[in-house]
C-alpha cells in the first residue's frame, strides 16, 4: 500500500470509529496531499430526508458532512488529531439524489488551530452547500 492509501485507510478507520459518522455512511474517496484536499461521499438514507416523499436532503446531514470533511482534511494535513471549534454552513440549493460528495480543503494549519473549507455537491455534480470550519489541532508529537 502507498503512503496515500495508508492515510486514506487511517482516515476511514477514524470515520468508522465514530458511531454517528459510521451510521451516516461517510467514506473517504480521494486524497490529494499537495492540494491539501480530501474527498468524501455520503449515501442518502431515509433518515436524512427533509420531508417525507420529497427526496431532498435535510440540512442537518449536510452540515454534519461539512464538519466531518473539514475536520478529517485537517487531520490528514496536520498529521494529528483535531476537533471542531466552530463551523458555518451556507446552503445554496436543495440537494437531492442518492449521495453527496464533499471536498475538504485545508486553508491554514498552525500549531494549535486550523481552518478548512468544504464544498458539497449532489449526485449530478451541482454545488449545493459550502462551509468553513475552525478546528483545534492536538499538540505535536
UniProtKB/TrEMBL annotation:
Provide the GO MF annotations for this entry: fatty acyl-CoA hydrolase activity
Protein's name in the database: Uncharacterized protein (TIGR00369 family)
Using the record's annotation, list all stretches that form the Thioesterase domain.
55-128
- Extract the InterPro entries matched here: ACOT13, HotDog_dom_sf, PAAI_dom, Thioestr_dom
The organism's superkingdom is given as Bacteria
Q: Which family does it belong to?
A: Belongs to the thioesterase PaaI family.
A Pfam family cross-referenced in the UniProt record is 4HBT
Q: Which UniProt keywords apply?
A: Hydrolase
Key word Hydrolase present in the record? yes
Amino acid at each position: 500500500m502507498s503512503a496515500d492509501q495508508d492515510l486514506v485507510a487511517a482516515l476511514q478507520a477514524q470515520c468508522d470509529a465514530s458511531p454517528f459518522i459510521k451510521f451516516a455512511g461517510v467514506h473517504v474517496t480521494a486524497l490529494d496531499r499537495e492540494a491539501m484536499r480530501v474527498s468524501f461521499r455520503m449515501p442518502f438514507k431515509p433518515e436524512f430526508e427533509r420531508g417525507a416523499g420529497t427526496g431532498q436532503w435535510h440540512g442537518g446531514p449536510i452540515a454534519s458532512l461539512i464538519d466531518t470533511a473539514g475536520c478529517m482534511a485537517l487531520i490528514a494535513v496536520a498529521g494529528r488529531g483535531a476537533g471542531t471549534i466552530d463551523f458555518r454552513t451556507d446552503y445554496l440549493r436543495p440537494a437531492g439524489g442518492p449521495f453527496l460528495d464533499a471536498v475538504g480543503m485545508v486553508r491554514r494549519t498552525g500549531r494549535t488551530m486550523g481552518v478548512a473549507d468544504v464544498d458539497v455537491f449532489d449526485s449530478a455534480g451541482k454545488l449545493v452547500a459550502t462551509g468553513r470550519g475552525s478546528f483545534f489541532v492536538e499538540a505535536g508529537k
